[in-house]
Amino acid sequence: MEAPYVNIHTHRPTGRGTELRSAGIHPWDAGKTAAADASSLGLLLAQQLSAAQAIGETGLDAACGVDMQAQERLFRAHLELAGQLRLPVVIHCVRRFEAVMSILGRYRLPGVIFHGFIGSRQQALQAAGRGYMLSFGRRSLASPRTAEAMRALPPESMFLETDDDDTAIEDIYAAAADAVQTDIATLRERIYGNYKRLFTDGQLD
Question: Which residues pair with residue 18 across a beta bridge?
């Protein structure tokens, strides 16, 4: 039996394959919420948390114009909540990689996934060296620098996603398989193995 396609982060669920369920408040909305700690955030997300496999997406974005202090408060609240609930976090990071890495290092988390990673080989290996996962989507694959970073990663550090794109997850896998010079079936097995390890203790979902 072939491994299912895993879409680790999508805003357009299709019901096909395995699609991660997460709960969080986007950094772009940091100025619109009063949730500044894990307790208040947990109350706001209570309904979503009942089905969530991960917390997020959360993180820092230097390009969106939202007050950075508000973003950092909300980010820390998400990480504190994730630690309490023992859930992995899905990270949104735009032009704040070092700051995000510094903050993450202060929390004990069962897993970290940088979604939609667009960065350098050095950054990718730095994140993977801490045991963090990197997820790649259409925009990632369109960047030669990021495609190089993806090729440098150990297979156990990779996920794929559609994010808010209408590209089919099957097409993302096809492009990624070509970029890392493997076949789609092998890539599906690797990524499903990563999913099982992180979210089901190695068991089937």
Answer: 6
Q: CA-to-CA distance for 113 and 92, rounded, in angstroms?
A: 9
pTM of the predicted protein model: 0.96
171 Rama class: left (phi>0) / alpha (psi -120 to 50) / beta = alpha
d(CA 183, CA 199): 24
Helix (H) or strand (E) holding 158: strand 158-160
Task: Quickly tell me which residue has 């499903």 as its tokens.
Answer: 192
pLDDT of residue 205: 45
**184-197 tens-digit pLDDT:** 999 999 999 999 99
From 176, 143, 181, select the one nearest 161 (Cα to Cα): 176
What is the dihedral sign for C-alpha 150, 106, 93, 12?
A: positive
Between CA 183 and CA 66 the distance in angstroms is 41
CB under 8 Å to 85, separation ≥6 — which residues? 49, 55
Cα separation, 56 vs 52, in Å, equals 10
- Can you give the pLDDT at residue 35? 87
CA dihedral 125, 80, 38, 6 (to 10 degrees): 40
Which amino acid, residue 159?
Answer: F
Residues of the chain with pLDDT under 70: 202-205
